[in-house]
Amino acid sequence: MSEKPIEIVELDQRLANDPDGVELKRLTERLLAGKGRVVQEMDRGVSTDDYARLSSLAQAYDAGVEALPKLWASINET
């Protein structure tokens, strides 16, 4: 069962209402879990085209994991 996608406006609202970083942690874990599923699929052995597509997707998850704390910090700076 997958969670529904989060719109960028909703993401801003969630992070703005998250001064303690609880939602940040949950969203980061969600991204890491998504990357884990992608890596598992890659490890099963896929075609060259699928590997390239999945590799790009894994990199996108990494970018999200890196960007999310920066976004949270910019929204919640005191």
What would you say about this model in short?
Helix content is 77%, strand content 0%.
Describe this protein's structure.
The chain has 78 residues and is mostly helical. The protein has one domain. The protein has helices at residues 8-16, 22-43, 48-76. Helix 2 (22-43) runs antiparallel to helix 3.
Unreliable segments (pLDDT under 50, ≥5 consecutive)?
A: none
* Share in β-strands: under 5%
Distance between the termini: 37 Å
- What's the structural domain tally? 1
Main beta-sheet strand count, sense and barrel state: none
Secondary structure: helix percent: over 70%
Number of helices: 3
Q: Give me the Rg, rounded.
A: 15 Å
Q: Helix/strand/pairing class, anyone?
A: mainly alpha
Report the mean per-residue pLDDT as an integer: 93
DSSP E strands, number: 0
Overall 3D shape: elongated
- One letter per element, helices H and strands E, the order comes to HHH
What are the key terms here?
78 residues, mainly alpha, 0% strand
Secondary structure layout plus pairing:
Elements: H1 8-16, H2 22-43, H3 48-76
Helix pairs in contact: 2-3
